[in-house]
């Protein structure tokens, strides 16, 4: 094995693989799901992408970027409270993604109130601390 081959090799230690037992209420069986680090972050990225796509459609039609309008414009419509709930539950990943990708999601950063509220609250907490 050459030095170049060693760099492309990935080793996952057993300590990083978390198996979560899950019971199926209908059948009573127990299965195991594998937790993959970063999966939640990727799902959050996809959600932000979908919000931005919907915001773009609304913007092109000169419509307001309300939670309700954005949610109804999504490929699979979602309610305004569900959007807010998702953003709040995944606040840490949302803020991290926004920080890591300063040029992504320009419409929702500037005009989408649920996202603006999360960012504003996080900045206020940082100023107090």
TrEMBL record:
Q: Where on the tree of life does the source sit, at the highest rank?
A: Bacteria
Write down what this protein is called.
Uncharacterized protein
Q: Which organism is it from?
A: Geofilum rubicundum JCM 15548
């Amino acid at each position: 094995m050459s030095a170049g081959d060693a760099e492309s090799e990935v080793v996952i230690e057993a300590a990083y693989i978390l198996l979560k037992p899950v019971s199926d209420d209908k059948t009573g069986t127990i299965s195991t799901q594998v937790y993959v680090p970063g999966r939640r972050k990727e799902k959050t990225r996809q959600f932000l992408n979908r919000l931005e796509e919907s915001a773009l459609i609304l913007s092109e039609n000169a419509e307001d970027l309300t939670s309700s309008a954005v949610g109804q414009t999504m490929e699979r419509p979602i309610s305004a409270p569900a959007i807010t709930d998702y953003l709040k539950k995944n606040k840490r990943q949302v803020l991290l993604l926004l920080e890591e990708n300063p040029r992504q999601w320009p419409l929702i950063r500037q005009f989408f109130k649920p996202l603006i509220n999360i960012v504003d609250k996080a900045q206020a907490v940082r100023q107090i601390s």
